[in-house]
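Chapter summary example.
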Amino acid sequence: MNSNMSQSDDTQNEENVSSICENSETRQQNRKRHQRHTLHQIQRLEEYFWGNPHPTKKQRNELGEELGMEPLQIKFWFQNKRFQMKVKHEHRENTFLRVENEKLQEENSRLRESLINACSIGCGRMFAARDMSSSERQLRMENERLTEQFCRVAAVAANCIGKMYSSSSPSSSGAAAIFRGTKGKGKAKGKGKQVMF
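The structure predicted for these 197 residues follows.
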């Protein structure tokens, strides 16, 4: 019984191998039918492509008649050429972006290194930024944030004060007087008080 099974398996394997060989021969024959374009055809197609990369059906038919090619061959040639151009463009762009990325990474590492090695002057002594404690770093960052906030508020206040001085309406005279250093009902003695934010 086993010998019958092995014989049928062998026969089936032989049939599979022969069908695979036939398929590969058919593929080779199909490949042989593939016709390469002549140098003249390629030159003319290239010339036409640079003038018009998207020819109409009528233009493809005319070009096919001129070059002895099928309009479908012309259509596929133009599709392939556009794809090749797109790939080349993307390759150049990727190369450029890769170089830019490397430059930015180098600059970033230099800036990090300079930040680590940066020195700050505090209390008359020099110390490296990496020697600061985390609480001191937080205080310095908070100080920077508050300084920026103060500058914004001072700018808004200066703008408001300028508007109050230019306004001559009686309702704003009380507020303007406070900013000018008076108490609203009369002038204060001495110089005006400076308002701090």
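To summarize the output: Confidence is low (pLDDT under 50) at residues 121-125, 168-197.
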